[in-house]
Amino acid sequence: MGGRLAVNLALLRKILWVLVGVAALSFAMLLLWDSYRSEQGSDEPQVFRAAFELTDHQGIVRTQADFAGRWMLVFFGFANCPDVCPTTLSEVAAVMDLLGNDAEQVQPLFISIDPERDTPEVLADFVPRFDAGIIGLTGTPAQIALTSDTFHIFFERIEEASAPDGYTMGHSSQLFLFNPDAGYTTSWQYGTPAEEILVELREYME
Asked: Among 5, 138, 173, 202, which one has the highest count of C-beta atoms within 10 angstroms of its own C-beta?
């Protein structure tokens, strides 16, 4: 009787230890899943610094160092964009106008994700339409790919027979703000009105 009881207790201990192990493993997996969901659901990019070497719409090579001491509003897009890009750049133009004299502290940049079509000459025709001192930037496919990685943005070519040259571009549509040291500050999703951007921008600039 005593021997059987000892065996049962030993078996019970093993079962309990297995249950403890399963519970610990489940808890660890739950933490990892919550972390993954948090990362996937976040609209904010990682903390980073603006870094690029691209050619502007006047044919001049530019880097982030050229805008040291100024806030940068940065948007990625392409000149043939039918709606998102012109809408966002119009909001940027409105922000620059509403800033008044403070506009001198801010430099808006439009970085093309379509280097095949967006030459400096094309951007020289495109960005001045918004009359906001926007500087258009382009480069080689390798330069654009490197810049997009640095800024943690996504873009892809999409074949579309009805689009100019038979394709369009899908891309991230947020508007970035960088401080005078080129550090990431915040971003606004597509459709954020100029008035809302202005309020937050002034708060950061104070």
From this structure: 138
The bridge status of strand 135-138 relative to strand 53-56 is: antiparallel
Q: Are 63 and 182 in contact (CB under 8 A)?
A: no
Kindly report the backbone phi and psi dihedral angles of residue 37, in degrees, each rounded to the nearest multiple of 5, phi listed first: -65, -40
Using the structure block, give the residue that is written with the tokens 């903390």: 47
Tens-digit pLDDT profile for residues 73-82: 999 999 999 9
Q: How far apart are alpha carbons 107 and 155 in whole angstroms? A: 23
Phi, psi torsion values for 182, nearest 5 degrees: 70, 20
Question: Which 3-state string (H, E, C) describes the chain?
Answer: CHHHHHHHHHHHHHHHHHHHHHHHHHHHHHHHHHHHHHHHHCCCCCCCECCCEEEECCCCEEEHHHHCCCEEEEEEECCCCCCHHHHHHHHHHHHHHHCHHHHHHEEEEEEECCCCCCCHHHHHHHHHHHCCCCEEEECCHHHHHHHHHHHCCCEEEEECCCCHHHEEEEECCCEEEECCCCEEEEEECCCCCHHHHHHHHHHHHC
Distance, in Å, from the CA atom of 185 to the CA atom of 70, rounded to the nearest integer, reads 13
